[in-house]
Protein backbone atom coordinates (compact mmCIF):
# COMPACT_ATOMS: atom_id res chain seq x y z
CA UNK A 1 0.00 0.00 0.00
CA UNK A 2 2.99 2.32 0.38
CA UNK A 3 4.03 1.97 -3.27
CA UNK A 4 1.95 3.70 -5.98
CA UNK A 5 0.88 1.30 -8.72
CA UNK A 6 0.15 2.46 -12.27
CA UNK A 7 -1.82 0.11 -14.51
CA UNK A 8 -1.10 0.90 -18.15
CA UNK A 9 -2.75 -0.76 -21.13
CA UNK A 10 0.29 0.19 -23.20
CA UNK A 11 2.60 -1.85 -21.00
CA UNK A 12 0.30 -4.87 -21.14
CA UNK A 13 0.01 -4.72 -24.93
CA UNK A 14 3.77 -4.69 -25.31
CA UNK A 15 4.40 -7.61 -22.96
CA UNK A 16 1.84 -10.41 -22.75
CA UNK A 17 3.82 -11.98 -19.91
CA UNK A 18 3.21 -8.91 -17.79
CA UNK A 19 1.74 -9.61 -14.34
CA UNK A 20 0.27 -6.09 -14.41
CA UNK A 21 -2.50 -7.35 -16.71
CA UNK A 22 -5.27 -6.98 -14.14
CA UNK A 23 -9.03 -7.06 -14.55
CA UNK A 24 -10.55 -3.62 -15.03
CA UNK A 25 -13.00 -4.45 -12.24
CA UNK A 26 -10.16 -5.04 -9.78
CA UNK A 27 -8.47 -1.81 -10.82
CA UNK A 28 -11.68 0.20 -10.39
CA UNK A 29 -12.49 -1.32 -7.00
CA UNK A 30 -8.95 -0.65 -5.83
CA UNK A 31 -8.73 2.95 -6.97
CA UNK A 32 -12.12 3.66 -5.37
CA UNK A 33 -11.22 2.16 -1.99
CA UNK A 34 -11.09 5.43 -0.07
CA UNK A 35 -9.84 4.80 3.49
CA UNK A 36 -12.60 4.86 6.15
CA UNK A 37 -15.26 4.69 3.40
CA UNK A 38 -14.47 1.45 1.56
CA UNK A 39 -12.22 -1.51 2.41
CA UNK A 40 -8.78 -2.02 0.92
CA UNK A 41 -8.85 -4.39 -2.06
CA UNK A 42 -6.78 -7.52 -2.62
CA UNK A 43 -6.38 -9.42 -5.86
CA UNK A 44 -3.81 -11.51 -7.69
CA UNK A 45 -2.74 -11.70 -11.33
CA UNK A 46 -1.06 -14.48 -13.27
CA UNK A 47 0.84 -14.30 -16.56
CA UNK A 48 1.01 -16.92 -19.31
CA UNK A 49 3.93 -18.66 -17.59
CA UNK A 50 2.18 -19.02 -14.26
CA UNK A 51 4.03 -16.17 -12.55
CA UNK A 52 1.77 -14.45 -10.04
CA UNK A 53 1.69 -11.04 -8.41
CA UNK A 54 -0.35 -9.97 -5.41
CA UNK A 55 -1.85 -6.52 -4.98
CA UNK A 56 -3.01 -4.86 -1.75
CA UNK A 57 -4.43 -1.51 -2.81
CA UNK A 58 -6.39 1.52 -1.64
CA UNK A 59 -7.74 4.68 -3.26
CA UNK A 60 -5.52 5.98 -6.06
CA UNK A 61 -6.32 9.52 -4.95
CA UNK A 62 -3.98 9.03 -2.00
CA UNK A 63 -1.06 9.04 -4.45
CA UNK A 64 -2.49 11.02 -7.38
CA UNK A 65 -5.68 12.86 -6.53
CA UNK A 66 -5.46 14.46 -9.96
CA UNK A 67 -4.06 11.74 -12.27
CA UNK A 68 -3.68 13.97 -15.34
CA UNK A 69 0.09 14.18 -14.91
CA UNK A 70 0.28 10.38 -14.62
CA UNK A 71 -1.56 10.05 -17.94
CA UNK A 72 0.78 12.52 -19.64
CA UNK A 73 3.73 10.60 -18.25
CA UNK A 74 2.46 7.31 -19.65
CA UNK A 75 2.00 8.77 -23.12
CA UNK A 76 5.41 10.43 -22.97
CA UNK A 77 7.00 7.06 -22.12
CA UNK A 78 5.41 5.55 -25.22
CA UNK A 79 6.75 8.37 -27.37
CA UNK A 80 10.26 7.72 -26.04
CA UNK A 81 9.78 4.03 -26.88
CA UNK A 82 8.82 5.08 -30.43
CA UNK A 83 5.37 3.56 -30.23
CA UNK A 84 3.98 3.86 -33.80
CA UNK A 85 0.66 5.12 -32.40
CA UNK A 86 2.42 8.40 -31.58
CA UNK A 87 4.83 8.74 -34.48
CA UNK A 88 6.20 11.33 -35.25
CA UNK A 89 5.30 13.24 -32.06
CA UNK A 90 8.21 14.40 -29.91
CA UNK A 91 8.09 14.08 -26.09
CA UNK A 92 7.79 17.83 -25.51
CA UNK A 93 5.54 18.52 -28.49
CA UNK A 94 2.62 19.58 -26.31
CA UNK A 95 0.95 21.09 -29.35
CA UNK A 96 -0.04 17.51 -30.21
CA UNK A 97 -1.24 16.63 -26.70
CA UNK A 98 -4.92 16.97 -25.85
CA UNK A 99 -5.60 16.68 -22.12
CA UNK A 100 -9.05 16.70 -20.53
CA UNK A 101 -8.92 16.57 -16.74
CA UNK A 102 -12.28 16.00 -15.04
CA UNK A 103 -12.45 16.83 -11.35
CA UNK A 104 -14.98 15.17 -9.06
CA UNK A 105 -15.87 18.42 -7.32
CA UNK A 106 -14.84 19.82 -3.96
CA UNK A 107 -16.44 21.68 -1.10
CA UNK A 108 -16.91 25.42 -1.32
CA UNK A 109 -13.77 27.17 -0.13
CA UNK A 110 -14.57 28.77 3.20
CA UNK A 111 -11.08 29.31 4.63
CA UNK A 112 -12.01 27.21 7.66
CA UNK A 113 -8.45 26.53 8.72
CA UNK A 114 -6.02 29.05 10.13
CA UNK A 115 -2.74 28.89 12.01
CA UNK A 116 -4.25 30.23 15.22
CA UNK A 117 -6.65 27.29 15.38
CA UNK A 118 -4.36 24.61 13.93
CA UNK A 119 -1.43 25.29 16.26
CA UNK A 120 -3.31 23.69 19.14
CA UNK A 121 -4.33 20.56 17.24
CA UNK A 122 -2.95 17.20 18.21
CA UNK A 123 -3.32 14.00 16.21
CA UNK A 124 -7.10 13.93 16.61
CA UNK A 125 -7.39 17.61 15.78
CA UNK A 126 -5.61 17.19 12.46
CA UNK A 127 -7.76 14.18 11.65
CA UNK A 128 -11.12 15.45 12.90
CA UNK A 129 -10.69 19.13 13.74
CA UNK A 130 -13.42 21.73 13.18
CA UNK A 131 -15.98 19.04 12.42
CA UNK A 132 -14.14 17.96 9.26
CA UNK A 133 -10.93 16.18 8.24
CA UNK A 134 -8.30 18.94 7.92
CA UNK A 135 -5.30 16.76 7.09
CA UNK A 136 -7.13 14.81 4.39
CA UNK A 137 -8.71 17.97 2.96
CA UNK A 138 -5.38 19.75 2.80
CA UNK A 139 -3.30 17.08 1.11
CA UNK A 140 -5.97 16.00 -1.39
CA UNK A 141 -6.83 19.56 -2.40
CA UNK A 142 -3.19 20.63 -2.56
CA UNK A 143 -2.04 17.67 -4.64
CA UNK A 144 -4.86 18.12 -7.15
CA UNK A 145 -4.28 21.86 -7.47
CA UNK A 146 -0.52 21.51 -7.87
CA UNK A 147 -1.00 19.14 -10.81
CA UNK A 148 -3.43 21.59 -12.42
CA UNK A 149 -1.04 24.50 -11.87
CA UNK A 150 1.96 22.55 -13.17
CA UNK A 151 0.24 21.34 -16.34
CA UNK A 152 -1.22 24.79 -17.00
CA UNK A 153 2.21 26.39 -16.68
CA UNK A 154 3.88 23.86 -19.00
CA UNK A 155 1.21 24.07 -21.69
CA UNK A 156 1.24 27.87 -21.51
CA UNK A 157 5.03 28.02 -21.74
CA UNK A 158 4.91 25.83 -24.85
CA UNK A 159 2.13 27.93 -26.42
CA UNK A 160 -0.38 25.08 -26.19
CA UNK A 161 -2.62 26.37 -23.41
CA UNK A 162 -5.85 25.58 -25.25
CA UNK A 163 -4.86 21.92 -25.48
CA UNK A 164 -5.40 21.47 -21.74
CA UNK A 165 -8.90 21.53 -20.27
CA UNK A 166 -9.55 21.22 -16.55
CA UNK A 167 -13.20 20.97 -15.49
CA UNK A 168 -13.76 21.24 -11.77
CA UNK A 169 -16.41 22.67 -9.45
CA UNK A 170 -15.06 23.95 -6.14
CA UNK A 171 -18.34 25.42 -4.91
CA UNK A 172 -20.15 22.28 -3.73
CA UNK A 173 -22.02 22.56 -0.45
CA UNK A 174 -23.73 20.18 1.95
CA UNK A 175 -24.29 16.63 0.75
CA UNK A 176 -23.11 17.53 -2.76
CA UNK A 177 -19.53 17.57 -1.49
CA UNK A 178 -19.91 14.32 0.48
CA UNK A 179 -18.22 11.14 -0.66
CA UNK A 180 -20.79 8.69 0.64
CA UNK A 181 -24.27 10.18 0.05
CA UNK A 182 -25.68 8.15 -2.85
CA UNK A 183 -29.38 8.94 -2.48
CA UNK A 184 -31.47 9.49 -5.60
CA UNK A 185 -32.00 13.12 -4.61
CA UNK A 186 -28.29 13.77 -4.24
CA UNK A 187 -27.47 12.02 -7.52
CA UNK A 188 -30.00 14.21 -9.32
CA UNK A 189 -28.51 17.32 -7.73
CA UNK A 190 -25.04 16.25 -8.83
CA UNK A 191 -26.31 15.73 -12.38
CA UNK A 192 -27.80 19.23 -12.35
CA UNK A 193 -24.53 20.63 -11.01
CA UNK A 194 -22.65 18.93 -13.84
CA UNK A 195 -25.02 20.35 -16.44
CA UNK A 196 -24.58 23.85 -14.99
CA UNK A 197 -20.80 23.40 -14.97
CA UNK A 198 -20.84 23.01 -18.75
CA UNK A 199 -22.09 26.58 -19.05
CA UNK A 200 -19.34 28.03 -16.85
CA UNK A 201 -16.13 29.48 -18.33
CA UNK A 202 -13.01 27.35 -18.65
CA UNK A 203 -11.12 27.79 -15.38
CA UNK A 204 -7.77 27.17 -13.72
CA UNK A 205 -6.72 26.89 -10.08
CA UNK A 206 -5.29 30.16 -8.75
CA UNK A 207 -2.06 29.50 -6.86
CA UNK A 208 -2.61 32.42 -4.50
CA UNK A 209 -6.21 31.73 -3.49
CA UNK A 210 -6.77 28.07 -4.34
CA UNK A 211 -9.99 29.00 -6.12
CA UNK A 212 -10.93 28.16 -9.70
CA UNK A 213 -10.82 31.31 -11.83
CA UNK A 214 -11.51 31.94 -15.55
CA UNK A 215 -8.54 30.79 -17.61
CA UNK A 216 -8.79 33.34 -20.38
CA UNK A 217 -9.17 37.08 -19.99
CA UNK A 218 -9.85 37.94 -23.61
CA UNK A 219 -12.65 35.44 -24.13
CA UNK A 220 -14.91 33.43 -21.85
CA UNK A 221 -15.01 30.07 -23.58
CA UNK A 222 -17.36 27.76 -21.70
CA UNK A 223 -16.55 24.18 -20.73
CA UNK A 224 -19.20 23.02 -23.19
CA UNK A 225 -17.60 24.94 -26.05
CA UNK A 226 -14.16 23.66 -25.11
CA UNK A 227 -15.38 20.05 -25.07
CA UNK A 228 -16.95 20.48 -28.51
CA UNK A 229 -13.66 21.87 -29.78
CA UNK A 230 -11.77 18.89 -28.35
CA UNK A 231 -14.29 16.48 -29.89
CA UNK A 232 -13.74 17.99 -33.33
CA UNK A 233 -9.96 17.81 -32.96
CA UNK A 234 -10.17 14.16 -31.94
CA UNK A 235 -12.57 13.37 -34.77
CA UNK A 236 -10.24 15.01 -37.29
CA UNK A 237 -7.26 13.10 -35.88
CA UNK A 238 -9.13 9.81 -36.14
CA UNK A 239 -10.05 10.53 -39.74
CA UNK A 240 -6.41 11.29 -40.59
CA UNK A 241 -5.18 8.10 -38.90
CA UNK A 242 -7.74 5.96 -40.71
CA UNK A 243 -6.68 7.50 -44.02
CA UNK A 244 -3.03 6.65 -43.30
CA UNK A 245 -3.65 3.07 -42.16
CA UNK A 246 -3.28 0.29 -44.75
CA UNK A 247 -6.50 -1.01 -46.27
Automatic annotation (TrEMBL):
Keywords: Hydrolase, Lipid degradation, Lipid metabolism, Plant defense. One of its GO terms (molecular function) is hydrolase activity. Its EC number is 3.1.1.-. It comes from Urochloa decumbens. Possesses non-specific lipolytic acyl hydrolase (LAH) activity. Hydrolyzes phospholipids as well as galactolipids. May play a role in disease resistance. InterPro entries: Acyl_Trfase/lysoPLipase, PNPLA_dom. This is Patatin. Belongs to the patatin family. The keyword Transit peptide does not apply. PANTHER family: PATATIN, XYLOSE ISOMERASE. The nitrogen atoms of the two glycine residues in the GGXR motif define the oxyanion hole, and stabilize the oxyanion that forms during the nucleophilic attack by the catalytic serine during substrate cleavage. GO terms for biological process: defense response; lipid catabolic process. The keyword Lipid metabolism applies. Residues 1-72 form the PNPLA domain. A motif (DGA/G) lies at residues 59-61.
